[in-house]
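Appendix C. Worked example: M20/M25/M40 family metallo-hydrolase
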Amino acid sequence: MKYFKIFILLIISQTAFAQTAIIKQDINIKNMVNDVSAKNIENTVRKLVSFGTRHTLSDTISKTTGIGAARNWIKSEFEKYSKESGGRLKVSFDTFVQPADGRRMPYPLEMKNVLATLPGNNPTDNRVFIVSGHYDSRATAANDSTSTAPGAVDDASGTATVMELARVMSKQKYNATIIFMAAVGEEQGLFGSTHLAKRAKEEDWNVAAMITNDIVGNTYGEQTDLKDNRSVRVFSEGVPATETKQDAAIRNAVGGENDSPAREFARYVKEVAERYVDQLDVRLIYRKDRYLRGGDHIPFSEEGYPAVRFTEMNENFNRQHQDVRKENGVDYGDLPDFADYNYIQKVCRMNLAVLANIAKAPAKPLNVGIVTSDLTNNTTLKWEAPKSTKPAGYYVLMRETISPYWEKKIYVTENQITLPYSKDNYFFAVQSVDAEGHESSMVFPKPVR
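Step 2, the predicted output written as structure tokens:
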């Protein structure tokens, strides 16, 4: 079998753990990355803040105040982008009734996610990628639906990111479908994302990956006095929430606790985002979310979909979930003047690079396995082509067991390879790639005979 070692991916410094992938950029994707506008993002954040509060229980009748006015405006903006895309971007409310729970839902309430769906251009490719930010906000008291709750960073920053993605990306075509989601009810209990994740499962959507952008607009940590406008955290689960006993047995036998689909997608995010976005350090955080906290990716994880969270490096807790006020010379409240719009632009560009590459790429290889019929210090991997589109080839990836990132890529055009490296000492994965270099996410192999 012929194969070619094409490059070593990983360059690690002792402080930053930066990864540099030496690979040709797609000029169309690079142009889209450059088209992301910090000014557009700032205008969107300030418009969302202008509704006073976007609390889930707030006014739904007013045209200028409350969550109803906010969601109607978001929908109208998506509809503008749809016209610019020639009508290909499909805009809708995803409406549901959330029952009372005796805590943060005192009564049943009709809620609405705002969705903008960009259908894939390949009729044989049923993959769906979902990217979200939540448009609701809150003040100090969880059920205070009338006080000012600007929510500029938490999470107008994520909503503005998703809206700018829809504006830029809807002008291009992709193999797979992309859903841009402004989610409702995150602060009250992940209600909007839970509804859409369950709907996706019930309707048998092939959700290949989900990203939520939540708190992506601040670069200063008030308690640590650190400013960081380069780093973005990516949270991903290790052991899948839907793991079966059989899956667990295999994972324990091969040492795959750090190679879930979500972890592989997180590694993909780091490699591709840093390929396209300058002055960016993607920090992979190997836990589902922040300590004892959660976000809109979790309901998708619980339905078995690979889902990750993007969040700023240092949160400012004087801003989050705070009544707007000034005490002892300190400003409290999530106000738009304190957001870093160049940083949100960088996060948006990061999202775009990842989504555009993976939605243009072929689907992942199927039935990826390491052959275990013989004891040997070589490693033989084999796999099958995805059914939707035949890739131009595949990358076989390697890393040492102590490495958090893939270290080598080996290009092959066949569906099997034998490498002179022991499966005892290295981890392996396989990804599909098309003729233009767009890669699928990585697939961690299972043992096969």
